[in-house]
Structure formats: C-alpha cells, structure tokens
Amino acid sequence: MGRVAVVTGGSRGIGKAICAALKADGFTVVANYAGNDMAAKACAEELGIDTCKWDVGDHEATLAGCRKVEEMVGPIDAVVNNAGITRDGTLQRMSYADWEDVMRVNLGGCFNMAKACFPGMKERGWGRIVNIGSINGQAGQYGQVNYAAAKSGIHGFTKALAQEGARYNITVNAIAPGYIDTDMVAAVPEQVLEKIIAKIPVGRLGQAEEIARGVSFLCSDDAGFVTGSTMSINGGQHMY
Ligand code: NDP
Predict the structure, then answer these.
(1) Structural domains in the chain?
(2) Catalytically annotated residues
(3) Ligand 1 mutation pick, 41, 155, 182, 238, max ligand atoms within 8 A of CB
(4) Global confidence as pTM
C-alpha cells in the first residue's frame, strides 16, 4: 500500500481536485468533510476513495477522526489542510460567532490536524503538510477581517511548524490561491465577481485543478527541499 494522504474538506471544490491529483500520484487518499453527505458520497464514487466526516474545528473530533482514518488505511503521511469557510461582513456587522467560527475552522483546523498527525510523521521520519491559505490572507479584503486574519495566521503557522519538522523530513508549506471557480466563489454576487475578474491579469478565475497541481508537487519526494514556503497561485492578481 502506498502513502496515505488526508485532505480536509476534500469532498468538494479545490479539495476534491486535490484528492484526485494525490490519488493519481499513488497516495491512498481519504477525503474529510463536515456535513454534506450527498457531495461526499458522489466524491467517493467518482474518485474511488474513502471519505470520513468530522468537524476539523473540533479538537477531540479531529483526533478521533484521524485515528479512524489510520485504522481504515494506515498511518497518515500527508495532510492537506484545505477545509475552509467564510462568514463575511464588515466589522460592524460581523458577530463574535462569525469571527470565532472562521478562526476555529480555518486556523484551528490546521492546529488540530497537526496535533493528530505530526507525531506519527516524526516517528516515521517523513511527512508532508500543505495548508491552503488565501490571497485574502496576504492582501486583506473588505468585509473579511475574520477570514483574512485566519488565512494570514495559516502563513505564520506554516513557517513556524516548518522549522519543527525540517530535521524529521517533514515539510510544511502553504498555497495561497487567488479566486478559484468553486461553490465558495459562486456565492459572491455577480457584479462583485465581475470587478474581481477585471483585476486578475490573466483575465479569468482559476480552476481547482490548478491548485491541486501545486499540492501534488509539494507532497512529492521532489519537493523535499521546499519547506516553510508559500506558493501563490492567483493569475498574477497579487505579487507577494
Ligand atoms: P468549498 O466551499 O467549495 O468546499 C469546502 C469544503 O470544506 C467542503 O468539502 C466542506 O465540507 C469542507 N468543510 C467546511 N467546513 C468544514 C469543517 N468544519 N470540517 C471539515 N470540513 C469542512 O470551498 P473551496 O473549494 O472554494 O475552498 C477550499 C479552500 O481553499 C478553503 O480553505 C478556502 O478558504 C480556500 N480558498 C478558496 C478560494 C476560492 O476562490 N474558492 C480562494 C482562496 C482560498 P461539506 O461539503 O461537508 O460542507
């Protein structure tokens, strides 16, 4: 059996494309998801992979979920922290719950997954962790203090954990996608989206597969010297 990869939020959008890419690379892939059983079932059937439901923002549930994955398919060698949510609004309109939900899932999820999987990677002397940040964590975005803070936090988390993992052959990197054509972006009002696309030098939204190719490289043996880095895949919208 090949290496095992867990992709959080792997049942839809960017995560699903990442699952397909890692499976093609030879990983045994498990897609985690939060609640949409129908999408998870469709993903499992289409890609021929297992899925596992838990909330990555819940520490105990994440530890238990990863233990279950290990019982199903073996030790986890690669983690892609892709699960993410938005609860947009200006500061004035944003509730504390909106702030807390986004921090808990988007940033807390990375910590919870690392706590579950990093010790085993260390013991076995090999690991790959890829955290999905965002252009809006690099540049900020109106109406997203929660999301921008959580995603920006992911970039700091990545650099700090990379330093802990380096001597054990565990690389920790981030990808900062620009605007990608998924359900998350479909929720953006049409006139706002037109203005966003007008600011993307390549003149279009990105495709989930274009993010997946970056993850595929960062999870490969070829990327052993790449750690603590952020790969921006954004059509030239923000040059960091
Ligand atoms: P989608 O909304 O299309 O899919 C989100 C996935 O995350 C689903 O599988 C969902 O599961 C899962 N998920 C949500 N909350 C949790 C949770 N608490 N625990 C476990 N799984 C959860 O998102 P995208 O594919 O668009 O985005 C993927 C990542 O990329 C996110 O981190 C996002 O912030 C980031 N990103 C996206 C960009 C874009 O333009 N789309 C741009 C920059 C970054 P379920 O179906 O069960 O709800």
Answers:
(1) 4-233 (3.40.50.720)
(2) 147
(3) 182
(4) 0.98
